[in-house]
Here is the input.
Amino acid sequence: MTAESLNITGFHAHVYFDSDSFATAMGIREQLGNKFNVQLGRVHEKPIGPHPKSMYQVAFSAAEFAQVVPWLMLNHEGLDILIHPLTGDDVSDHTSFALWLGEKLELNIDFLRQVTSNNN
Here is the structure.
């Protein structure tokens, strides 16, 4: 698949936190839910899937990108956030197509490769 043939069907933001930043992360979560047309995923208080830290996911449409991402840029309060498109290529979505706010964390990409190979 070439970049020109990819279709972005939406976006995910993964907001990472630890015990010290939990309240901050929940405040951002509440604001995202109140201000934007987003779907708030479950709060995972342990690493899950390719994610190396506790986090929650925020799903939003391509139409919401121009509102949600600039807001996160100005309001992430020092938290690390992964923003990635949904193209159907999970590995590229989480790596070469990804944007990071804060520190770029090392994801477990082997987990994504395993899931992808099991689905084929």
